[in-house]
Predict the structure.
Amino acid sequence: MESEQASVTYPIPPEHIKFTRRLIYPEAHKHCFYCGKELKGRQRHYCSEDHGSKYHRLYDWVWARKEIYKKYDGLCQKCGTSTFFNKHETSNIDLWAEIDHIEAIALGGDMLDRENLTLYCHKCHKEKTKNVDYAKMYPKQKDPHAIKLIKPLLEFFT
């Protein structure tokens, strides 16, 4: 019985990376994740540093967060407060920079689309999160009490 191999398209989406070497794309471990060019020598994932950077800019939350912080010069888009990118720079939790999705992922917003991301201070982000309509975000949730359980969990982690 022959196993079917998925065709490789580049750049390889990150959800497939964990399977790349073994299951889905066994031939991909020999090719750049960004362009598909054959790797040489000690190269493991990308054919060049540039392609590694480009790949991470496409798919990496850390890169997205940095870009949004720079785009808005560290200013909260709601109140205009200057925020801190690294949480260890200040003990005032309200001044921490937080990146927020304009259109929630649960409602169809793109996770890393730079046009769907904005910068808030912790205080404004918490305010916005309190006003989220969870019933709209999770319409398949039949138990209204479960929605009440989700909200405090989200508030705890924000």
